[in-house]
Amino acid sequence: MPDITQQLTVQNLFNIHNEKLQLTWVAGQQGGKRLVVPEEILTNPSKEGNDNEEISVMDQIKPDVLPGKSLVGYLNLIHPHQIQVMGEMELNYIGGLRDISREDAIRQLFKHQPACIIVSEGRTVPVFLKRKCNENSTPLFSSAVSSIKLTDTLHYYLANLFADVITMHGVFMEVNAIGVLITGPSGIGKSELALELITRGQRLVADDAPSFSRIAPDIINGTCPAALQDFLEVRGLGVINVRELFGDSAIKLNKYLRLIVRLEPMEKGKLLKIDRLDGSYQVVRLLDVDVPEITIPVAPGRNLAVLVECAARSHMLRISGYNAAVEFSERQRLLVEQSEKK
């Protein structure tokens, strides 16, 4: 669940996006302190809390928003959004209603207390809408940008801002174009492996404490905390600045997590349990998303950088539908059948 302390006012939203989205503040300037709040806080108070805790959470966000509203979308009077976008179709619909029906629709719109309203596509803002926004202290913006771009941009920004976030121990890298988290016990050699991968052309996202957030139902985005950006700790060398040593191309600001590689000390008992065909390929649950994980035994003389690169390539083949173990088994089956026929 997102942090309740992560708050975004309409004024801040305007300051951040007014140039990119060509926003003009038309009416309702007195409502700049209204909050845009994470959907989970509105609709899903903590299951661990009691009724009193639920009330206390809701008290923190009243009266700016009402429960049950999503973040941003086209005008919807039945399932309202906190940011209501009105383009040509929505304005034509409102304008085509009879006077009484139009008043009912506008009353319904402001009953849900939207955080703000945006009139898109360079459409002229109706006088009645300006008046109502001033009366209800509801910020009203106009924009020359299309409704689709407005909703996509704001939804992406808000989804990232309010995403579920966790911090994990390990080194997060881009290996062969996919995000790979290298994890394992302290001292196993994660940083040394990362340094070897960097010299082979792979890129560092974060060392030691990468942050992961779910920005879509099946997408986890990995980033680096600002304090750790560009740095890698290597035992014996201390802290090194990867960007200064290897250039900007050795750093990646963020990457979607696609694979976890776990380094484990090589023990005979564990080795015997590893499937000789499929290896140690399994799926772990992270932020309610299934993420593939591969365990690589560590021992002197093993070229871990090559193994990690191969693991990344093999995973990409699995995604495309190819599985070497399945092909190998099928080939052996066919050879056995041919041998029996002879």
Alpha-beta content class: alpha/beta
Elements, N to C (H/E): EHEEHHEEHHEHEHEEEHEEEEEHEHEEHH
Beta-strand proportion: 25-35%
> Taking Cα atoms only, what radius of gyration do you get, to the nearest Å?
27 Å
How much helix, percentage-wise, in residues?
25-40%
- The number of E-state strands comes to 18
Parts with pLDDT < 50 across at least 5 consecutive residues: 1-5, 42-67
Write the layout of secondary structure elements.
Elements: E1 8-9, H1 10-17, E2 23-27, E3 35-36, H2 39-43, H3 51-61, E4 70-74, E5 81-86, H4 88-95, H5 99-111, E6 116-119, H6 127-136, E7 140-143, H7 147-161, E8 164-167, E9 170-175, E10 178-183, H8 190-199, E11 203-208, E12 211-216, E13 219-223, E14 231-234, E15 238-241, H9 242-246, E16 254-265, H10 268-273, E17 282-286, E18 289-298, H11 304-319, H12 324-341
Parallel strand pairs: 4-5, 5-6, 6-7, 10-16, 16-18
Antiparallel strand pairs: 1-3, 2-7, 8-12, 9-10, 9-11, 12-13, 13-16, 14-15, 17-18
Helix pairs in contact: 8-11
Q: Can you describe this structure?
A:
Strands 8, 9, 10, 11, 12, 13, 16, 17 and 18 form a nine-stranded mixed beta sheet that branches. A five-stranded mixed beta sheet has the order 2-7-6-5-4. Helix content is 37%, strand content 28%. Helix 8 (190-199) crosses helix 11 (304-319). The protein has helices spanning 10-17, 39-43, 51-61, 88-95, 99-111, 127-136, 147-161, 190-199, 242-246, 268-273, 304-319, 324-341; strands at residues 8-9, 23-27, 35-36, 70-74, 81-86, 116-119, 140-143, 164-167, 170-175, 178-183, 203-208, 211-216, 219-223, 231-234, 238-241, 254-265, 282-286, 289-298. By secondary structure, the chain is α/β, with parallel strands linked by helices.
